[in-house]
Amino acid sequence: IQKETGAWMHFQGKGNGQAGSGDSSNNSSRILVIQGTPESAHQAELLVHQVIAETPTVLTEEIEVPRYAIGRIIGKGGVTIRELTSVSGAKIVIDRNENFTNPDHPKTVTLSGSRKQIDCALVLIQDKLEEEEQFQAQLSVAAANRDHRSRNQTVKEHIKITPVARKDENWDIPSSGCVSCQESLLNDVYVEVYVSAVEHPGHFWVQMIGTKALQLEQLQNDMTNFACSDDAKLNFAVKEVNPGELVAARYEENDGTYYRAKILGETPDGKVDLYFVDFGDNAYADKETIFRLRSDFGSFPFQAVECMLANVEPVGGKWSEESIACFEELTYCAKWKSILARVTTYKCLKGDVKLPVVQLFNTRGPEDIDIGMELVKKGFAVLCDSDKQKD
């Protein structure tokens, strides 16, 4: 406009005509100063009014989506939400207020733009939620298939956008080796987990919920087919018990699925002592029923994350059977029902291994439960210094 009319233009203040007001909302206004000859200034003013008249009205609409589906909308490193914004033209803002809460508790997503842009963004977001719904259904099937441990999975309700009143990924991924998920949990981030095995509240294992849960299911199916093949019987039979070696083994004799396990040793009666690296539990097996692990089955990271409960220690220095039973009930141990976990620190063990010290939250009831504090209330535990756990 300046080039066309010869007038000089600049905006005054930062919002609502008040210098330094700092109001940058869509409804704020600013004074435009036009300087020049009467003719050039008048022509510039007319052009400015023309631009204003042609500018579409900016609308704002809020929707609610389930908390567990937010990751699908954001994408790794924010790539998906940037793509949604670019395609639709709408500004998409997700409420970042983070608090431990029910995984199904909705989060507010604010959409800004023209009516056409917002409608396009709504369609794109709904597509992402349907992708998440399919993923959650696959997780439910995977959990239900683990019937040897009598675990049940609650199927999530159909996911959909809720208006707010204006107010086949392969498991065989590249890997440097059989690395654990031990360092995958991040401080101050709440993640959904399954508690897969418990020794006591100071020593238990979790699996993080995500695409790797489905990859693990596929790995176990492929490994079961392998263990039942003639190739496994001829070329991968265990002839010597070597502690530390990875094998394919069943958890129980009547279990038809094979899982990855590490040999811990051999019992006096000839049984092989096994640690299941994706679940955290132990079992004994006959040497004839286990097979050396094919190399490609070992490329997938171990899924059992070894943890300890934060901020508490047992009354009398030892966890009682009652406290362990209470902890298993609160965490739905081996029942494939999700709870929330947050790392508070890491306990350094031998060999540079870091054990996550975590808070656990049961969010499935009418009120969220801090599981550590619940053990204290029930008289099974006392509060302890977090630095003591770290050391």
Task: Describe, in plain words, how this protein is organized in 3D.
This protein has 391 residues and is α+β, with helices and mostly antiparallel strands. Helices cover 29% and strands 26% of the residues. It contains 10 helices and 19 strands. The strands form 5 sheets. A 5-stranded mixed β-barrel has the order 7-8-14-17-16. A 5-stranded antiparallel sheet has the order 12-11-10-9-13. α4 (79-88) runs antiparallel to α5 (115-144) and α5 (115-144) runs parallel beside α6 (211-227). It is elongated. Mean pLDDT is 81; it is low at 17-24, 147-159 and 165-180. Residues 1-29 are annotated as: Disordered. Residues 240-300 form the Tudor domain.
Short description:
It is built from ten helices and 19 strands.
**Helical percent range?**
25-40%
What is the mean pLDDT? 81
Specify Rg, calculated over alpha carbons: 29 Å
Structure classification: alpha+beta
GO molecular function: RNA binding
Protein name: Tudor domain-containing protein
Domain Tudor: 240-300
Pfam families: KH_1, TUDOR
Walk me through the topology.
Layout: H1 2-5, E1 8-12, E2 31-35, H2 38-54, E3 59-66, H3 70-74, H4 79-88, E4 91-94, E5 106-113, H5 115-144, E6 162-163, E7 191-200, E8 203-208, H6 211-227, H7 230-235, E9 246-249, E10 259-266, E11 272-276, E12 282-285, E13 291-292, E14 305-309, E15 312-314, H8 321-331, E16 339-348, E17 354-362, E18 369-370, H9 371-377, E19 381-383, H10 386-390
Parallel strand pairs: 14-17
Antiparallel strand pairs: 1-2, 3-5, 3-6, 4-5, 7-8, 7-16, 8-14, 9-10, 9-13, 10-11, 11-12, 15-19, 16-17, 17-18
InterPro entries: KH_dom, KH_dom_type_1, KH_dom_type_1_sf, SNase_OB-fold_sf, Tudor, Tudor_domain_containing
GO biological process, one term: piRNA processing
Pfam families: KH_1, TUDOR
